[in-house]
Design brief:
The protein is α/β, with parallel strands linked by helices. 49% of the residues lie in helices and 10% in strands. Strands 1, 2, 3, 6, 7 and 8 form a six-stranded parallel beta sheet that branches.
Length: 318
């Protein structure tokens, strides 16, 4: 009787709640740009705000470095100092190539050169700190528009000792940032405040959308990997962004911990000229029908405002 009663209690007990986890990654270090001649918007100030928030929320972030941003977008001293601050704060750095080219328009040999040249500063700093560079993120998430390119580059980054840095959540922050920078330059305080609020709302929608998408594919929600950029908008909203994850019960983990989940062992044969989030790639690999039309787009007024600044002069796509 005691055994039967225990069994009944077990069946009536609520199922244990799965712990939700998320890794935060930041692209286009040491600073995505553009340079703003405004108080509190130097590359140092923007990175300091990001680093302070990551420390407050105990987030083990990996930042991905574009080598020619170190001494061409910034000066060598500033660019190096920013990267040193990331490492000194216990955060990791990864390779995002030398100049963030579109791999669709480059030969395999040119891509390999971009990857090796991308190691010049960040890998040296990581090694000096006793840390091993482990992750590579494809520019624009373009992993190969031909099978030969896809397979050759995947093999090459593995040969260099890198893991591919996946990403499962993004919020088009680079598009919002184009408009935000224009508002800062125009001293358009009201529009900037409105944009920040709508950016948080849109990011909320995207987190929930991708969580549901990934759960549809695997029947459970694998750890998420969030992609954002080292830009003025994120530096001004970073606390609110991190709180979105916390409010949903996510625990922040490293990208290594996130990608140790079995979902990330899904075979990678995705060949395309586009760079979608991994949920869409997984769905194709596993032959799961998903409806991408359910994903919302950034508000039109923000996109229209952003046209005042040419994106090519602001920052590359993710």
């Amino acid at each position: 009787m005691a055994v039967a009663a225990a069994a009944i209690l077990f069946l009536q007990s609520p199922a244990p709640v799965q712990t939700r986890t998320a890794a935060i990654t930041v692209d286009d270090l040491p600073y995505a740009g553009p340079l703003l001649n405004l108080p509190n918007y130097s590359a140092d100030a923007i990175n300091d705000r990001l680093l302070a928030a990551f420390a407050r929320h105990h987030v083990p972030v990996t930042g991905f470095v574009i080598e020619n941003y170190v001494d061409q977008k910034l000066d060598r001293a500033t660019g190096t100092r920013v990267l040193q601050h990331w490492i000194a704060n216990g955060l990791d750095l990864g390779n995002h190539t030398y100049s963030h080219p579109d791999f669709n328009n480059r030969t395999i040999d040119e891509i390999k050169e971009e990857i090796t040249k991308g190691e010049a500063t960040f890998a040296t700093l990581m090694t000096a700190a006793g840390r091993k560079p482990e992750y590579f993120r494809y520019p624009m998430l373009h992993t190969g528009d031909t099978k030969e390119k896809h397979d050759s580059i995947a093999a090459f980054i593995a040969q260099r000792g890198y893991h591919n840095a996946f990403c499962t959540v993004e919020s088009s922050d680079y598009l919002f940032n184009v408009a935000y920078v224009a508002m800062l330059k125009n001293d358009d305080v009201a529009s900037a405040q409105r944009l920040r609020a709508e950016y948080i709302t849109y990011t909320t929608t995207e987190i929930d959308y991708y969580a549901a998408l990934n759960k549809q594919i695997f029947t459970y929600e694998p750890p998420e990997v969030m992609l954002m950029h080292d830009n003025p908008l994120n530096s001004d909203t970073i606390d609110d962004l991190l709180k979105l994850f916390e409010a949903r019960g996510y625990k922040f983990v490293s990208i290594a911990t996130a990608q140790s989940d079995p979902a990330y062992k899904t075979p990678d044969t995705y060949v395309n000229s586009y760079g979608p989030m991994w949920g869409y790639r997984w769905a194709q690999e596993l032959k799961v029908n998903v409806n991408g039309n359910l994903e919302t787009e950034p508000p039109k007024w923000i996109l229209d405002y952003g046209k005042e600044v040419k994106p090519s002069k602001v920052l590359p796509l993710p």
